[in-house]
Each structure stands twice: as C-alpha cells, then as structure tokens.
Amino acid sequence: MTDYPINNKEDDMKTSMMTAAFAALLFASQVHAAVDMEAGLKLARKSGCLNCHDESKKILGPSFQEIAQKYKGNQDAPAALAKKVTEGGSGNWGKVAMPPHKGRVNEADIHTLVEWALAH
Length: 120
What we know:
The protein is an all-alpha fold. It contains five helices and no strands. α2 packs across α5 (about 105-120). The chain starts with 8 loop residues before the first helix and ends with a helix.
C-alpha cells in the first residue's frame, strides 16, 4: 500500500485556482452574453459613436473589434473606457483625440456602449 496524503495543500490550491478561473470565465461569458448587440448598435448610432468608429474597421478611432481585442480579459477596462468616453482624451490609439461625451451621452448609456464595444 502506498501512502498518499489525504489533504494535499498543493492539490487544494490548484483546485481552488481552477474553480476561481472557471467562475471568472463563466461570469465574463454571462456578462457578454447579456449584451444585446442590436440594441448596442442602435445606441451607438444614436450617440454618434459611428461618426468616428466602425464595428470592424478603423475610421478616425479604432474599430470596436480592435477595442475589444486590446482590452480582452482586462477587468478594469469597462471603468477605464467609460471614463475615457466621458472625459475624452488621446494617446491610446494615436494622435487623434476623442472628444469628451459628458453631457452629450448620459452615464448609463456610456456604460452600455462600453459593454457593447467590449463584447465584439
């Protein structure tokens, strides 16, 4: 008979890490699955986003697919991008500055648009 430890801390740690990773992936897929892509596109049109952005190609600003790819897996991205949309800025995608949208697009719509963009 071979002695195996009944409670191996290394195995417990691996199991915990795998469980946490699975839960994070599941949560992320549910967040993006909950995004209504058609409603997001309609809101992007209404808010003027499509004047400078496109879903799949660069115009003045990056495409929504490029944005989603750049920030994939970044849990801080929604808050950081909402701030960027609200306050405007430049430097992340080149020299062309994005104007601030505070007052032009309400805060709830900005958060919806950011989630929609990240879901591409």
